[in-house]
Design goal:
heterodimer; A: 2 domains; two-stranded antiparallel sheet; B: about 100 residues; mainly alpha; 2 strands; about 75% helix
Chain lengths: ~230, ~100
């Protein structure tokens, strides 16, 4: 991969292994949704419009256990609230008319966002869009396989696929830790998330951890990279 | 009916969350003070994702085979393995740990 100008294709290539994992989870989401009585169309529409795995799993499993619509929506909204800070971090990449920015922004998911990061707060738009498109196809396609009855695929957890995501994020975190301030902020963010995980509903730990980036208000020395 | 209400509301909320930055701030250069904060969003949120994806679960802290997966992934990262290899090593280690526990 070239170091400077990445292409859409670079983004697509970078995300292939994790896209396969995402497709498996899409299939298990489709299966879960169907067995929770959502039918065939609703899970597909949800994957195509929401495109955020953990929130969809949460909403559907709450509906399936007759937890009520309000609880399902609340859990999903809480889980996806992290996309506010995430989308702010890449806001400068999106140009052009409002509607186009709105549409392209839908390709932001944890994995496409993480893969497009170049360190020092910089992100690459083409990596994000290329990776986002592949992940979108994988997620919606996987969901389709699941609702069509993909029982034969088995549980992604048996293949250890749930352990792939934290490792991916760790691999993408390491190159971010370029200076003392980045390391301190990451450590603080991780500590906040860990401290809150046992006590708060899913989603809250990540959103609260975002407060750790307020360390950026202190400015030790000159910033080494301009943006 | 309830199902479609949930699907619709979750979609609208998520679309708005994802568009918040690009639509409201898109293309604009942020003030210098804010830029320092935004630059730290990537390391902070990635660290939080590592934590929640490793030990998060239904009803709080869940310590399971994912720990082995992340450990193996970390070893692969230290050995400078490419990203797909890190992902595959982590999945294999998680599956193996789940099989033996």
């Amino acid at each position: 991969m070239s170091t400077e100008a990445a292409s859409y294709r670079d983004g697509m290539r970078a995300v292939l292994a994790i896209a396969a994992t995402v497709a498996f989870f899409g299939a298990s989401f489709g299966l879960l949704a169907r067995s929770s009585g959502l039918g065939v169309l609703a899970p597909l529409v949800m994957s195509a419009t929401t495109f955020a795995g953990s929130a969809q799993f949460a909403a559907v499993s709450i509906l399936g256990s007759s937890g009520g619509a309000a609880a399902a929506v609340a859990a999903a909204v809480l889980l996806n609230a992290r996309y506010v800070p995430i989308s702010i971090s890449v806001a400068s990449l999106f140009r052009g008319p409002r509607l186009r920015r709105l549409a392209e922004a839908q390709l932001i998911v944890d994995e496409s966002w993480a893969i497009s990061s170049r360190g020092g707060g910089r992100f690459d738009r083409r990596l994000l869009v290329g990776a986002g498109l592949v992940l979108y196809v994988a997620w919606v396609g996987g969901t389709a396989v699941g609702v069509a009855g993909g029982e034969a695929l088995g549980d992604p957890k048996d293949l250890g696929l749930d352990g792939a995501f934290p490792a991916l994020f760790l691999a993408l975190l390491v190159p971010q830790l370029v200076g003392a301030r980045e390391r301190a902020a990451a450590l603080l963010g991780g500590a906040i998330a860990l401290a809150l995980t046992p006590f708060t509903p899913a989603g809250t730990p990540i959103v609260t951890a975002a407060a750790a980036c307020l360390l950026g208000l202190s400015r030790p020395g000159k910033p080494r990279r301009g943006s | 009916m309830t199902v479609w209400l949930v699907v619709g509301l979750v979609a609208v909320a998520t679309i708005a969350f994802k568009a918040a930055g690009p639509v409201l701030l898109g293309g604009r250069l942020l003030p210098v003070g804010v830029r320092g904060v935004v630059a730290l969003l990537a390391p902070v949120l990635l660290a939080a994702l590592v934590v929640t994806q490793t030990v998060g679960g239904d009803g709080g802290l869940v310590l399971d085979a994912r720990l082995a997966g992340v450990g193996a992934g970390a070893a692969a990262i230290v050995a400078r393995a490419p990203l797909p290899v890190v992902v595959i090593v982590a999945a294999a280690a998680t599956a193996l740990a789940r099989m033996v526990t």
